[in-house]
TrEMBL record:
InterPro entries per the UniProt record, alphabetical: GPCR_Rhodpsn (IPR000276), GPCR_Rhodpsn_7TM (IPR017452), Olfact_rcpt (IPR000725), Olfactory_GPCR (IPR050516)
Name assigned to this protein: LOW QUALITY PROTEIN: olfactory receptor 14J1-like
UniProt gene name: LOC103206054
Phylogenetic classification of the source organism: Eukaryota, Metazoa, Chordata, Craniata, Vertebrata
Gene3D superfamilies: Rhodopsin 7-helix transmembrane proteins
CC per GO annotation: plasma membrane
The keyword Signal belongs to this UniProt entry's keyword annotation: no
Membrane topology term: Multi-pass membrane protein
Length: 319
């Protein structure tokens, strides 16, 4: 890889994890295994939720979360695998723009869908008698449409702001993907202020979502603790705790990543943090959501044994 000529090229140089060939192959192999596990787990979730017993809003949102996870990991990991196998960290500006757009869009969409899912659990547990009215199928479709559209808008804004920057330094990115903070450091003027403005706006939106999730769970836990039977409490917690774990893991990793200073020579720890919010959540989500859910495990067993999904359509409130 020739660093000297990278400033004259239209693309960027991703340094990735190592220049040692054996480690590059090991990285490609590990990423490939994680990518295949993610594809398998999330495809299983999507197919399983086609069961007519799993047509409640909770499973409808879970299906879209799995679609987001599939897309999210596909934006960066395949490109990183290819770069490692080819021993070439070059990425064109078009590919970099593609990564920034979809990474930003899907990150925001993931935060938004997790917020919608927390509202669903809040309605199911705190207002069980009105749940079917509050979470009417038409409202759920509008919520999911808003999630995807808002993600696209955030991606367009962030990409436009990022690539309005004049890159005048060595176009070297100390990451295995086109990381926006790393791109901003390549600017040698104040034209990166647009990125800061968009990032501040999106951060405020994320904070709003986070506050909404926290308030929802305060009400949820106060309601669950007032349920007289241990069985009722266990059933309520079984639908909430997986979501709470996913929210906590994803948001804490993202917050840590974007609050920490951007280094000119990131350490292995910095790269591991990126893996924790880019790669690990899409792998864990199918396991977490299906592990304590007997209905999903039953539907998956039917799928695994080749049985037909039930034709009877029901609306489960899961409260």
């Amino acid at each position: 890889m020739i660093v000297a000529n990278i400033t004259t090229m239209s693309g960027f140089l991703l340094l990735g994890f190592s220049d040692i060939r054996e480690l590059q192959v090991l990285h490609a192999f590990l990423f490939l295994v994680m990518y295949l596990l993610t594809l398998t787990g999330n495809f299983i979730i999507i197919i399983t939720t086609l069961d007519q017993h799993l047509q409640s809003p909770m499973y409808y949102f879970l299906k879209h979360l799995s679609l987001l996870d599939l897309s999210f990991i596909s934006v960066t990991v395949p490109q990183s695998i290819e770069n490692s196998l080819m021993d070439d960290g070059y990425i064109s500006q078009g590919q970099c723009m593609f990564q920034v757009f979809f990474f930003t869009s899907l990150t925001w969409a993931e935060v938004a869908i997790l917020t919608v899912m927390s509202d669903d659990r809040y309605a199911a547990i705190c207002f069980p008698l009105h749940y079917e009215v509050i979470m009417h199928p038409s409202k759920c479709k509008w919520a999911v449409t808003a999630v995807w559209l808002s993600g696209s808008i955030s991606g367009i804004l962030f990409t436009a702001a990022t690539f309005s920057i004049t890159f005048c330094r060595h176009k070297i990115i100390h990451q295995f993907f086109c990381d926006v903070p790393q791109l901003v450091k390549l600017s040698c003027s104040n034209d990166y202020l647009g990125v800061v403005g968009v990032a501040a706006f999106l951060s405020a939106m994320v904070l709003t979502c986070f506050t909404s999730i926290v308030l929802s769970y305060i009400h949820i836990f106060s309601t669950v603790l007032r349920i007289p039977s241990a069985e009722g409490q266990s059933k309520a917690f079984s639908t909430c705790l997986p979501h709470l774990f996913v929210v906590s893991f994803f948001l804490s990793a993202c917050i840590f990543e974007f609050l920490k200073p951007t280094s000119d020579s990131p350490s292995a720890f910095d790269l591991m943090v990126s893996i924790f919010y880019l790669v690990i959540p899409p792998i864990l989500n199918p396991v977490i959501y299906s592990l304590r859910n007997e209905v999903m495990k039953g539907a998956f067993r039917k799928l695994l044994l080749g049985g037909e999904f039930t034709r009877k359509k029901t609306f489960l409130s899961c409260h």
